[in-house]
Amino acid sequence: MSIKHGLLALLREEPKYGYQLRGEFEEATGAIWPLNIGQVYTTLTRLERDGLVRAAAEPVADDGRSRYEITDAGRAELAVWFETPVTRESRPRDELAIKLALALAAPGVDVSAVVQRQRAATMQSLQELTRLKRGDREGEISWLLVLESMIFAAEAEIRWLDHCEAMLLRHRGRPAKPPEQYAEPAADPAEANR
Amino acid sequence: MSAILDIRGLTRTHGAGEQAVHALRDVSLAVAPGELVAVMGPSGSGKSTLLTCAGGLDQPTSGEILVDGNDIATLGRSAVAALRRRRIGYVFQDFNLIPALTAAENVALPLELDGTRTRAARKYAEAALQEVGIDELADRFPEDMSGGQRQRVAIARAIVGERRLLLADEPTGALDSETGEAVLRLLRDRCDQHGIAGVLVTHDARHAAWADRVLYLRDGVLVGQAGPLPAADSLLQESR
Ligand SMILES: Nc1ncnc2c1ncn2[C@@H]1O[C@H](COP(=O)(O)OP(=O)(O)O)[C@@H](O)[C@H]1O
Ligand SMILES: [Mg+2]
C-alpha cells in the first residue's frame, strides 16, 4: 500500500495539515488501513526531501506545524501512479501459497486440516466484512469500493482453497470409497467445478 | 433461547451393505431463533439431505430431529405434513413456483392447503409479498417475472403465515451475483427481525458470509465451521 501516493492524492485539491491528511486517508479507505500520525509525518518528510511536496507559507497551526502543498513534480508523480496498473509482482509474496506448498512437501503435515483451518479463518473475515457492509446501506462510495475489494479478495482465497482441496483429493485418490457410489445422477457439472 | 431446529446424531444411509451410501453421518446441529446458518460442501457431500431431513421430507436412518420442540420421527405422517405447512418454509434453486398461478396465489397455496379461507390466505400472501418488497407483482404469473422476482415470490411463500424455520437449498444458484446478494439480505432480515431460524445451502462464500455460522460438510460429515459466535467453538471439529 502506497501511503506516499495516497497523501499526494489528498493534497491535489489544496494544502493540508498532517492530522487532516491522516483523517481523510482513513475516511476514504474506511479506516481499513489505519495510519498513525508518525507515519504521516515520516512520509511527508520524505516527500518533501524528494521535492514532491513543500511546506506552505500560511497558516501555521498551534503546534507550529504548517500545511503541506503538492509541487508540480508531485502532481506528475501522482499522474503516473494513476496511469500505471498495479502489478501483481509488486505485492508481497503470498505467504499462504508458500505455506501450502511447504505443507505438501513436509511429511506428516495434514494438508487438508491446514486448508480447512485457513478456509474457516478466511470465512470469518469475510463474515466480518459482510457485517460492515450490512450495517452501512448508504455508505460512502469510496469506502464501499475498498470494502468490496477486500470481500472479493477473501472470496477468491476461499475459492482457491476449495480448488486446492479438490486437487489434493484427485491427486491422492479416494480408495476408501469407490467413485461410482458417489456419482450423483442429477449432478450439475458446473457445480462440481466450483 | 431454545433452538427452533435441533438435530442430534443424524445419520442417513441409502441402501445397505456393500452398496450403502452414507449421505450423512452423525451430524448434530442446533439453530436458534434469529440465527442464520450456512452449509457448504462439495457436490454430493449431503447438504440437500440435511435440509430434506430437517424439513421432514426425508427420514433419518438414525438420530433425532426436533422442530420447535417436536420430534419429527415420533410425529405421525399427517402431523409432520401439518408441521411442514405451518412452521417450515422451503426455498429451492429453481424456485418451484406453479406456472399457472399468480404470485399471490403461489404464496397463498400452502395456507389454503392447510384450510385457511381463500380471502384470508390472500391477505397473508399480500403481506408476505410486501415484506419481500414485491407487493406490486401480486397478480403476475411467474413467467412474466425476472429470476430475482421469482425467488422473492418463493421466499414469500416460505415465510407466509407463522413459519419458524426457513430452509433454503442454493436459493441464489440461478441468480446473478447482485440479485443473489439481495436475496441474502432478505433472508438475513427475516432472521434478524422475525426470529426465524434459517439454514442456507450455498456454493458461494460471498453469500455464506451473511450467515452467523458456516458449517462444512465432507462426505456426510461435519468437518468444521466458521463463525464468530463463542458458542459455536464447542461444536468445532478440526478434521476427521
Ligand atoms: N435416493 C437416494 N438414493 C441413493 N443415494 C442418494 C439418494 N439421495 C442422495 N443420495 C446420495 O447421498 C449423497 C448426498 O447427496 P445430497 O444430499 O444430494 O448432496 P449435496 O446436496 O451436497 O450435493 C450423494 O452421494 C448422493 O448420491
Ligand atoms: Mg444438493
Automatic annotation (TrEMBL), chain A:
Keywords: DNA-binding. InterPro entries: Tscrpt_reg_PadR_C, Tscrpt_reg_PadR_N, WH-like_DNA-bd_sf, WH_DNA-bd_sf. Pfam families: PadR, Vir_act_alpha_C. It comes from the Bacteria. GO terms for molecular function: DNA binding. Residues 7-79 form the Transcription regulator PadR N-terminal domain. Transmembrane segments: none annotated. Residues 93-168 form the Transcription regulator PadR C-terminal domain. Signal peptide: none annotated. SUPFAM superfamilies: Winged helix' DNA-binding domain (SSF46785). Residues 174-194 are annotated as: Disordered. PANTHER family: NEGATIVE TRANSCRIPTION REGULATOR PADR, TRANSCRIPTIONAL REGULATOR YQJI. This is PadR family transcriptional regulator. It comes from Kribbella sandramycini. The lineage of its organism: Bacteria, Bacillati, Actinomycetota, Actinomycetes, Propionibacteriales.
From TrEMBL, chain B:
GO terms for molecular function: ATP binding; ATP hydrolysis activity; transmembrane transporter activity. Residues 5-239 form the ABC transporter domain. Pfam families: ABC_tran. The keyword Plastid does not apply. One of its GO terms (cellular component) is plasma membrane. Gene3D superfamilies: P-loop containing nucleotide triphosphate hydrolases. This is Putative ABC transport system ATP-binding protein.
